[in-house]
Amino acid sequence: MIPRPFELHAPTTVSEATSLLKKNDSRVLAGGQSLVPLMKLRLVSPANLVDIGKIPGLSYIRKGRDRLLIGSMTIHNDVATSSVVNEKCKTLSEAASHIGDQQVRNRGTIGGAICHADPAADIPATVVALDAEFKVAGQRKRRVIKAKDFFEDMFTTNLRQDEILIEISVPVLPPRSGGTYLKLGRGTSDLATVGVAAVMTLDNAGACKDVRLGLAGVGSTPIRATKAEDVLKGKTPSDGLVAEAGEKASEMSNPSSDIRGSAEYKREMVKVYVRRALRQSLSRI
Amino acid sequence: MGVLSSPKQMDLTINGQKYSGRAEPRTLLAYFLRDELGLTGTHIGCIVGKCGACTVILNGKAVKSCLLFALQAEGAKILTVEGLAKGSQLHPIQDAFWEHHGLQCGYCTPGMLLSAYELLQKNPNPSEEEIREGISGNLCMCTGYVNIVKAIEAAAEKMAPAKKAKTRS
Predict the structure, then answer these.
(1) What's the pTM value of the predicted model, to 2 decimals?
(2) Cross-chain CB nearest to A103 (options B5, B28, B55)
(3) Shortest CB distance from B25 goes to which of A6, A106, A107?
(4) How large is the ipTM?
């Protein structure tokens, strides 16, 4: 219940932090809401912890012309309550509002949630649905990684050992769009049994111009339910098509039976929650 | 492994007073407050960061003090349950928990009071649903939450007229 001993480093610049990460057996400490419990259970015992919380300028929410730019150390509470994110990218603010509890949202960061890459977490599924892009800094040149290339396996990302996520960009949802994040969970303060991030955009004739679905909790990574999206693209949404999209999303899921439910239950809940998320997104247009 | 985790001296402000103590890097804030500084009002319930009994207000935000390292709080301003009352004068939230029997064993209570404190700062007139959502990071094994919710509603009412009076003058 007490972590193993380690050295705690508190760099004040990004380049100092990335240099420290080259040390043997080192990890980034962001909000600590996922990492510290793992260290207390001694499932993870890094020799060096690089606390990036003292680096200025990593917590912000800015609106560009067609994208929102969010600093990696922005806490979930700020994403959830931001009027800019609520107006321009509701799926993301709603996902952030479902994370853990108030105390967790007061410390946990959007960057930490993405880099921890728990497939049952709310943010990874959401950024995959939104085609987010991640600006990353390391000892080499800064690079941009697309969300679809970022999540490789559970708790495993495309980041190199010395790299830190600096900024996340998500689209400003275009006109005639509605977005939502729905979560089936055990009570509060839990990860998703099934989570669905959805965006729906209609054209002037009322047909579906764009639709995005990201699934949490039903695979070893967040799942972009492209086969479900294809059911709706170019067509006018109807109960039948929404139900079919739910079926296709369920077919793309690959859940495991665990403490949150059987695989069969989760596959069934994908259908229910995808249907609800699509209807909710439509109702918000 | 041969990694040294040497203790360091650190200063911070708690309930308006300066404190100084020694902590290893791995010393969690909850243990630092209790064992090093003798502020045992902050409780350790579940150890894994779920129950919220360890909740304190750190730089204006409710946090679970078992989920951060003491050294991360160097230079911070913290409010613990010991800082709510002014001498023998209870804080209105404590008063309300007393009047409405919002506790039984008292183990979750410090964390519950501080979560309520933050909730009412941000939302002075919360609905029942908002209260339940706001304290969802604090688990109670005794009360079933009914009287806790009533106490927070009563506290909101106690604290609101003072705010209204301030805006009038």
Answers:
(1) 0.95
(2) B55
(3) A6
(4) 0.94
